[in-house]
Amino acid sequence: MPWHRLILLCLLAVFLRTAAALDSQDFLPPEQAFKLTASAETADKVELHWQIVEGYHLYRDKTKFQSQTEAIQLGQASMPEGVTEHDPSLGEVVVYRNALDVVLPLINQNRETQLKLLVKYQGCADVGVCYPPQKVLLDVALPAAQPAANGGALNQFVKGLKGLTPGLFSEELLPPDQAFQFFASLKDPHTVQASWQIAEGYYLYKDKLSVKLQGATQTQLTPLQLPEGAAYHDAEFGQVQIYRNQISVDIPLLRGSSAAETIKLLAKFQGCADRGVCYPPMQAEVSVDLPPADALPQAKPVAVAELSEQDKIVNALRHDSLALTLFSFFGFGLLLAFTPCVFPMIPILSGIIVGHGDQIGTRKAFLLSLSYVFASALMYTLFGILAALFGSNLQATFQEPWVIAVFSGLFVVLSLSMFGFYHLELPKSLQSVLHHSSDKHRDGSYLGAGIMGALSSLIVGPCVAAPLAAALIYIGQTGDVVLGGSALFLMGLGMGAPLLLLGASAGKLLPKAGDWLNATKAVFGVAMLAVAVWMLSRILPAAVTMFLWSLLLVIPAIFLGAIDPLPESATGWRKLWKGLGIVMLVFGILQLIGLSAGNSNPLKPLQGMGLNAQAQPVEGLSFQRVASVAELEQRIQQASASGKPVMLDFYADWCISCKEMEAYTFTDAQVKQQLANFVVLQADVTANNEADKALLKRFELVGPPGIIFFGADGRERVAQRVIGYQDAATFLKTLQQL
């Protein structure tokens, strides 16, 4: 049966089974399963009540409220704790059963008597059927309230709010002008310093801060360059940045006249108290006297705060058109196709095509390649979306030593089958199992090629680069799985485009039968052994890996006739293969010599063994390891106290780009000189345990490699983040921007 018919039948079976299950039970309409009522005993709060039918439940994090009456704002809803349950799709969630009562404070300064309240919620039946998100617009009548005492509207609200919920607060909320004090002072004739003093237990939103000039003046303000704030998850706004205690920022002035003048600054800001009460937007006006300026500086272009590469791509995802976004990500995939993360897929796909023998044609070779690439891109997209939504790098999960060992063993079995004699090395029972398994994955079947493509995307090439990180951050922040997933899929196809060209050409270029076909199979058999050694290098000691590489050079060199004499009638091809074999033999022997001398770099086996005896192997950076977020913060504070900047490197044993950085970038003399004054830290996330995940989540990283820089003030230099591999020259340019 053709594979597409099999897939269609499977989908049809799933659909019919689901339909039968839905028919087997009548489900209540959402308004009956979750009966919602609202009432208001005072003008300052609304009480909402859900009556939840037995066998149904509501999600806490899906319950939200919005005021549709402009004159009324909502406070922080008081919701019960709920029950933590495991949801098959969402993981650990908090749900409500039987009943839910919510008290919703109102900021009703104008004493409105009517509130339009939009309530959003979502729930499911216990049998596994979930309702779409519900939106209900309620008209709530508010009783008339007694006039408030004289005073500012904001101060009246804050003083009166504690009386609405006497058991909620242990002390009075501060008036807004005490919770958030704004100051402005003159730093020099061309610079104003703006500061906010924030009371303990309160915070300001970064994106709500602005400073503008009031009135007619010949002076202009440059754009406000705010420092990085602390990451904070807001129930209404999602992931935001906030400031606590104090925030100060220098604002350069563009003065049109050297004469003295007085300018008026209007600052706008909004903040909340930790206890859950948020203040309405506030503003403050401050006058600053500018002295005469001796000389007016030449106007310079204002430096706009740079974004890191991944943040630029995230912004593009938010604002670019769909066509441009997909085209860009396909281009990113093409660029990633020529990285070490993708190279191992070439011998894998080639082995699948060659394994079909002399019956392969151009059309079938291309379709095999398409099956491999499509499955790889699909798996890349699926696990990328899951990682973004649930915060787990599933590719890292597949880097467990036993997984790598099993997959490497599979490549050894496949390579031996290329040579045609692996069955001689195995017992009969195991031989039949392995032969059946290897045939499925290399006999030319589309399903086999798809399986190998899916596994390759997870195990062979867990490559983290800026486009991948940006797509996952975008999905995680916005929940837009369609656009983010489409971008990931197009990037996966871009990464596989060269493989499609390889498949299309293989049908024409590969020999159809005879000794040439056997020789071609042997070449790809060696290539598959190289993939197995390359994968094992993630879990084996460097010396063992170097020994395996030397064997992989020496033994095939002997088969190429490196030690056999050439007959006088030898053809040009025979001489070429012998020459190649001699090169492989010599280099393999050099690796064995270097290994015996204590070297472990297979590309530089004789490093440090020159006649000038003082030559020593080039060493990389001496990292200080950090194992938790708390330890990292402590090290950053210590470095800041000493006036030193910090470089944090995320590393894992299974990360190929990380090892490239260690071998070629961090050993560069200029790089080491540039980092001489830095405190260099390294987070080894090989184990992928909870502490490792917390470190990655702290910086919204998908996985290694990732390099984070902090200034001597302890603040991250976001624009200089490094995601993915950089060679020494490129990395030096990054360091020079700090």
Automatic annotation (TrEMBL):
GO terms for cellular component: plasma membrane. It is a multi-pass membrane protein. The chain crosses the membrane at residues 326-354, 366-390, 402-424, 445-475, 481-504, 516-536, 542-564, 576-597. The keyword Electron transport applies. InterPro entries: Cyt_c_assmbl_TM_dom (IPR003834), DsbD_gamma (IPR035671), DsbDN (IPR028250), DsbDN_sf (IPR036929), Thiol_diS_interchange_DbsD (IPR022910), Thioredoxin-like_sf (IPR036249), Thioredoxin_domain (IPR013766). Its EC number is 1.8.1.8. Residues 595-738 form the Thioredoxin domain. Gene3D superfamilies: Glutaredoxin, Thiol:disulfide interchange protein DsbD, N-terminal domain. GO terms for molecular function: electron transfer activity; protein-disulfide reductase [NAD(P)H] activity. It is found in: Cell inner membrane. It catalyses: [protein]-dithiol + NAD(+) = [protein]-disulfide + NADH + H(+); [protein]-dithiol + NADP(+) = [protein]-disulfide + NADPH + H(+). The keyword Lyase does not apply. It is an enzyme of class 1 (oxidoreductase). Belongs to the thioredoxin family. DsbD subfamily. Required to facilitate the formation of correct disulfide bonds in some periplasmic proteins and for the assembly of the periplasmic c-type cytochromes. Acts by transferring electrons from cytoplasmic thioredoxin to the periplasm. This transfer involves a cascade of disulfide bond formation and reduction steps. This is Thiol:disulfide interchange protein DsbD. It comes from Methylomonas methanica.
